[in-house]
Amino acid sequence: MVATKADQGSTFRSGFVALIGRPNVGKSTLVNQLVGDKVAITSPVAQTTRNRLRAILTTETAQLILVDTPGIHKPHHLLGERLVQSARAAIGEVDQVLLLLEGCEQPGKGDAFIVNLLQQQRLPVQVVLNKWDRVPVETRPEADAAYRELLSTTNWPLHHCSALSGEGCPDLVEAISAQMPEGPQLYPPDMVSDQPERLLMAELIREQVLTHTREEVPHSVAVQIERVEDMPAKGQGKSRTAVLATVLVERKSQKGILIGKGGAMLKTIGQGARLQMQTLIDGPVYLELFVKVVPNWRTSAAKLNELGYSDDRM
Ligand code: GDP
Ligand code: MG
Q1: Are residues 63 and 127 located together in one domain of the fold?
Q2: Which end of the chain is less congested by CB atoms within 10 angstroms, N or C?
Q3: What is the pTM of this model?
């Protein structure tokens, strides 16, 4: 028999990896770091990832489809429940789980809850102790020991990483790839996300809202992209993409904060989002933003569906 290349150890592997972890642990940052492109919204405010996002990482030997999930946490209201359902559903659809833990904090009850939940699955799990850059060198052995204790009933590999700086990430990609089943390329190698551009645009606007308003307008914001159109060039100017979007808030007071004095806040948000969108579509963007009050949009199932927070149970 003639040995082919594949027999000699260059087997291609592919599959789905769910990123699981508490809100704010750095899942979206890790996705962006691994894919080398901005596909997931990240923010200093917990619980910003609302839609399940698939990012695609293709290397010489593997294609990893990363499923960024909202954090698993105790539900507070309808939107919270949807987030948890979506994270649980993601576990059911993947080949491997990447559990992210907060390296710069002590392990807590929530971590034990997630470890327990994952132990009931048969999937391979690897653990990332993230934000390792924030752990002072002298306390690293202590932090490492605390997390090894948390994982003592498992045989899951533990990786120390910084999703922000990329430290530890190349080794992580190798370790994940090695655990993947053999399989073909499922997406073209230059594709980094399976989300439609409109959804990414909406997420970029929402990210700017969260960045600039922080505590005052926490999670009661949704963004609807109303129209995306090509604007033909006028005279000497270049053609642009015009985007019309509405920011939904729940209360009149939040609308006031978003618009700001003389419209200053909305202008800042719009400028920030416009720059990000230009990178996304690789061309000039004209962005028009409106703010609309829709009382209780978060507890209205119909509204959630309309905004794309689909009700996908396990
Ligand atoms: P998610 O809710 O799990 O998706 O968390 P995000 O990716 O949105 O990150 C939450 C915050 O933690 C952001 O401000 C990130 O910049 C920050 N962050 C994420 N990973 C790291 C890391 O490895 N080191 C440091 N210092 N900060 C990080
Ligand atoms: Mg996130």
Answers
A1: yes
A2: N
A3: 0.66
Domain assignment present for residue 264? The answer is yes
Parent domain of 208: 197-306
Give the model confidence (pLDDT) of 105-120 as tens digits: 999 887 888 888 888 8
For a mutational test of ligand 1's pocket, the pick from 164, 172, 207, 210, i.e. the residue with the most ligand atoms closer than 8 A to its C-beta, is 164
Answer yes or no: are the C-beta atoms of 94 and 17 closer than 8 Å: yes
Q: Is 31 helix (H, G, I), strand (E, B) or coil?
A: helix
Residue 286's alpha-carbon distances to 219, 245, 269, in angstroms, are 26, 11, 13
- For atom 11 of ligand 1, the residue with the nearest CA is 44
Residues 203 and 117 in one domain: no
pLDDT in tens, 211-227: 898 766 767 788 888 88
Which residues fall within 8 angstroms of residue 139, CB to CB, at 6 or more apart?
A: none
The ligand 1 site (C-beta within 6 Å) comprises 21, 23-29, 42-44, 48-49, 71, 130-131, 133-134, 162-164
Instruction: Give which of 26, 21, 22, 23 is closest to 164, Cα–Cα.
Output: 26
